[in-house]
Amino acid sequence: xxxxxxxxxxxxxxxxxxxxxxxAARVDTSDEWIVERTGIRQRHIAGEGxxxxxxxxxxxxxxxxxxxxxxxEIDLIILATATPDHTFPATATQxxxxxxxxxxxxxxxxxxxCSGFLYALATADALLRTGMGTRALVIGxxxxxxxxxxxxxxxxxxxxxxxxxVVLAAEDVGDVGPGDGPGILASRLHADxxxxxxxxxxxxxxxxxxxxxxxxKGREVFRHAVxxxxxxxxxxxxxxxxxxxQLDWVVPHQAxxxxxxxxxxxxGLPPERMVMTVDRHANTxxxxxxxxxxxxxxxxxxxxxxxxxxxxxxGGFTWGAALARM
Length: 326
Ligand code: UT7
Known about the structure:
Layout: E1 2-12, E2 16-19, H1 20-24, H2 31-38, E3 42-45, H3 52-67, E4 76-80, H4 91-99, E5 106-110, H5 116-129, E6 135-143, H6 153-156, E7 161-172, E8 183-191, E9 199-201, E10 214-216, H7 218-240, E11 249-252, H8 257-267, H9 278-281, H10 288-298, E12 307-314, E13 318-325
Parallel strand pairs: 4-5, 4-6, 11-12
Antiparallel strand pairs: 1-7, 2-3, 6-7, 8-13, 9-10, 12-13
Bound molecules: oxa(dethia)-CoA (UT7).
């Protein structure tokens, strides 16, 4: 049986750290409000010369080193972002060139905002299992700070910049059961375009001709996130024939520590099994899941053989989950 197996992870963060105290000096907010309502204490903000492609390439270089795979062995790159360097070409093609990956391989971006990494992972999994590629970089990379209205306290305190990447390889894992053996075991993706107004950017090449700024009705998004995530997690567990208490780790999208707590409660899991990085990275949109994964792999929590659930929900709405054995 051919599976897409995670061979290595990497991440990259801009050098500059912005604390809640700095934000409180700019807008009418406080460290206390931000920590209590979101769990966020700081975020990284891209500086001059740091773009989505440079952060992505740095994350990929670390993932390739961890996997022991050379850039010129990569024949598929899928990069999830809502903040591409340019309207086109796809940022994935720039990462291909920056890393010196095999020319002629497949490279494209996916736009599913905070769920982008899940969309990219499921797409790469399908392409690898059907032989369209052999070794893939799956990336979530964002410079969301450039979409923020820095006068809107309801949104500017919530987001940060960064990138995370995984190297996937198509491998014959032999004759294993649905929940056994390494690789991506199951994934589900969903979208419901009826909710655009709850989370969107008020610009774009075909409307205003400007880049625009992020707008969000946070309370409504929160409500939908908890419901949609618990449904999609149940679907993926069911597809894989796995019970929630068999999960070693959940690597969730990092929007708000209260959403993580609610998700853990719904799964009946202790909160310690949720990897949490929202305190130091804030919400990095498509980058948040692979960034959190890399943190937990590098600090030794996530080990080979562990069963790990990924999940995310974002603008659109879009949402999804995937289960992998490391
Ligand atoms: O990644 C994509 C998915 N995104 C999400 O999942 C985000 C989901 N939503 C959330 O995480 C939360 O809804 C927020 C963190 C955005 C907001 O938390 P909340 O507990 O839902 O607060 P709220 O929007 O209901 O606002 C409560 C109060 C309001 O004041 P009034 O109307 O009660 O007087 C806001 O004006 O808090 C006020 N407020 C703030 N106060 C201080 C909003 N932002 C701030 C702020 N500092 N930064």
